[in-house]
Amino acid sequence: MTFEPLAPLGGYITLSILLLGLVGYFFVKEIRTPGHDDASIVDWSRRLAITVLVIFIGFGPGRMVETTETARANVDVFFVVDRTGSMVAEDYDGDKPRLDGVRADINSLVSLLPGSRFGVISFDSSATQQLPLTTDTNALKIWSTNMNQEITLYSKGSTVNRARDEMARILADSKERFPQNQRLVFLMTDAENTTEDEVRKTFADLEPLVDGGAVLLYGTEAGGPMKQYDPYDLEPKYIEDHMAPGTPNAISKADLGEGKAIAAELGVGFFHLTEPTDLAPAVAGIDPEILSVEGGRIVEVFQLMIWPFAIGLAALLTWELSVVVARSARRVG
């Protein structure tokens, strides 16, 4: 079994430890309480099992399965996705979060580049490779669907600098291993920099590693408010600007100048996206060579295996709910 976490690993581990510790504390407290009954121990054992299953599912359990690759294009596509808090500013296509546009455009570009291999680099407080190059577009769609902004509590502001070094490493590795392939980079960001003491690094030295792509800049210069993100908060509040009088909602503004500058340094196109847009022009110059694999080639792809654990979780939750309802009925009666 292998794992592909559904959330940034560092923050998820921290939250998992805190949650497990909290439930474990109440479990131990119940055991040590004089005169406790067996029913209460069963209750907290069940809740502990629910917690463990939820945490385990969040780590993205799965397995590598073999599939036959019959043909592919000599194109490696890298989506570099900004997941800082500003990417949920509500100024895309009216008042929708910018990440809504990112999700839609990833799907659009996949359909425009059939047979390519796709990989994902995301950056927030750090940059990580979320998905190695693969022809498994279902894996990419699953990642895109489950993608969220970083957890607000751990945010360190916005800067594209965090993506640069990881991009350099992965692009250099791709060129060394597959020199015949074309490498397309789609940097999906608002280019906002809220770490004003940090000078933006140049992307110009990455230009020899890039054959095409675009900087896709989301949001407006007027900006929009952003909601906080906590996976356990069902009614998130807006992020506030504590430096402004009256503590109004913080406003994130897309930086067109920086976006254009990065595009020029990478030698790729620039698209300012404030609403759904046809991205065919972004790949107009790409002429992929289809590489047929005679007789098919066996490759391994990652397949999520959540459903067996989800069934167990559903059973435990049903049990918990039935106990709560039964006890409520007895109290009312």
UniProtKB/TrEMBL annotation:
UniProt protein name: VWA domain-containing protein
Answer whether the UniProt record assigns the keyword Transmembrane to this protein.
yes
Q: Which keywords, in A-to-Z order, does the entry hold? A: Membrane, Transmembrane, Transmembrane helix
Transmembrane: is it a keyword of this entry?
A: yes
Domain of life the protein comes from: Bacteria
Q: Transmembrane segments in this chain: where? A: 6-28, 48-65, 304-326
Q: Which residues form the VWFA domain?
A: 76-219
- InterPro entries under this entry? VWF_A (IPR002035), vWFA_dom_sf (IPR036465)
